Amino acid sequence: MFNFINSLALPLLAAALIPIILHLLNRQKLKTIPFSSIKFLKELQSKRIRQVKIYQILIILIRMLFIIFLVLAFARPTLKSLFSSTLKGARTTAVILLDNSLSMQARTSVQSNFEKATNLVQQVLSSYQDQDQVFIITGDLNSEQPTQINFNESFELSQLKVSNFNFNFGLAVKKSAQLFAEFPNFNKELILISDARQPAKSVSDSSVSLLKKLQAKVFLIKVSFDESFENLSLDSAAILSGLIELHQPVRLQALIRNQGDESKESYISLFNGPNRLAMQLVKIAPHATKSVELVFSPNTTGQYDLVLELDDDHILLDNNYYLTLDIPKEIRILYVYHKTEPEVLAALQTISAKGNFRITPVKFSEWLAQPLSEYQLLIFDDPVNMGQAPVNILNQFLKMGKNLVVIPGLSSSLTEYNQLLERLTLKKPFIDFQKRQSDDQFFSLKQTSAGWRLLKPVFQPNVEQVELPVFYQYFKMRKMGTLLFEFSSGDPLLQILDAKAKGKVFLLSSGLSHQWGNFPLHGLFVPFLHQLLAMATYT
Q1: Cβ proximity of 162 and 113 under 8 Å
Q2: What is the pLDDT of residues 68-107, one digit of tens each?
Q3: FRET partner for 520 with CA separation of 20 to 30 A, picked from 216, 238, 242, 408?
Q4: Contact 522, 515 (CB under 8 A)
């Protein structure tokens, strides 16, 4: 009925005889002393002796029981079965809560904590019988229910995987309670295998209260006893540069978080395949997040498989972040014009002769015959009124995620432009036409942060202010999109409108010929067009 874990202590039960031996050794023989015959004193003596003997026997029993229980405590008795006839072969419902959170990927030795945990699971499973009902629960915060595995149904340990999320302890305990209620066997066991790094928010008071009500034996098996925990994680990364060009700096931003309890230093490196492009040393306070900026200059076209990498720590899984950057060898642009503007054509030919832009000029009457799927960008300069069929073709072009640049002219009215843009963007941006009243009057531009970011790559690093061109006339527009350039009056010169589909429409409020201003003669004209095309194709 009883088993003893430490049976070597059982011989010490003989020590229970020590009080009896001591009592026998200390017994005193009564000496007879002559005394006067007093009847009442003799009766009192006999009563007193009987009481003393009872007290002595009780004291001896207490001392013996104390020694017996002390020895049994060291022997650690276990109850094999309460009733051998009724509980023989009693089944067990066991639920193993396996922590598969990201911290279990920590590697403090040859094996990771999760690999140690799966080995422990195997050992625990081997202790159960075939008739026992054993379940393994892993909990992920990204799922409505924790993963439940009945190992009696073709279970394999290879099914257990590490998650990128925290272990949902509360949900796992709730599911355990459901399993205990569904399989009410006499023996109930709940086993938690974890590194004990659960965040406080995942262990609520209600979960602890439910755990106490399970009426099950609860065991915690800790897989890691290393209190020092060092982990820097690359939480996110992005390309900050609005334009990507050959031999121009490309800026990347990475967010690094220190999940350890001490300050940590590490190198963050940027690789393209085996080639290191940039590297920086960072130091982050405990439980803090730091933004790091890396810069590199691409020198060839094609795809860049970028990898941001931190030095090795306890968790390797979150030390890398992957980005893909594609610099096409050739960007094909279709320039559609109604009237020949020699200044614009000459500027586009200059841009096309250098770099990876391939610009094809075509008359407005011929653009529908072009294979639009081969072009990444369409430019319409002074478009005339379009029917529904050409507009549908433009919407299909925008639906592919490609963009459109619209340069207004005088061949169409404000109403016609608004009708065209409404069918493309569901917006009517144009209000009226602004024109100077005398030859010495003009409309100036003001420098905006968005416009400066667009033009800054063409200037020297120390240049902060530039002389901007002036205009003689323009179409007054509402601010209905992302503003890049504007006049001193606040009216937009260039803004980006979202199309009905995926693409965008880059809309100017002024033509680019000499009739509209001195822009074609200004030194910013060609750089402006180049940056506009780069942004429109990159976006």
Answers
A1: no
A2: 888 888 777 765 544 343 444 578 889 998 888 878 878 7
A3: 242
A4: no
Q: Which domain holds residue 59?
A: 2-28+49-79
d(CA 311, CA 323): 18
Dist CA 503 CA 377 (whole Å): 10
Ordered DSSP codes for 11-79: GGGGGGGHHHHHHHHTPPPPPP------HHHHHHHHHHHHHHHHHHHHHHHHHHHHHHHHHHHHH-EEE
Complete DSSP assignment for 83-152? STTTSTT--EEEEEEE--SGGGG--SSSS-HHHHHHHHHHHHHTTS-TTSEEEEEE--TTSSS-EEEETT
**C-alpha–C-alpha distance, residues 208 and 229, integer Å:** 26
Domains identified in the chain, total number: 4
Q: Are residues 170 and 236 in the same domain?
A: no
CATH classification of the domain holding 292: 2.60.40.150
Q: Which helix (H) or strand (E) holds 431?
A: strand 430-435
Among the candidates 192, 222, 252, a domain finishes at 222
Q: What is the CATH number of the domain that holds 165?
A: 3.40.50.410
- In a shared domain, residues 392 and 418: yes
Q: What is the mean pLDDT of the chain?
A: 84
User: Do strands 133-138 and 92-98 pair parallel, antiparallel, or not at all (unpaired)?
Assistant: parallel
Looking up residue 473, the CATH number of its domain turns out to be: 3.40.50.880
Residue type, 500: K
Is 203 part of a structural domain of the chain? yes
Same domain, 350 and 201: no
| Cα–Cα–Cα angle for 172, 175, 178, rounded to 5 degrees | 155
304 and 195 fall within a common domain: no
- Which string of b and e fits 110-126 if b means at least 16 CB within 10 Å? eebbbbbbbebbeebbe
pLDDT value at 294 more than 90: yes
Give the whole-angstrom CA distance, residue 433 versus residue 509.
Answer: 9
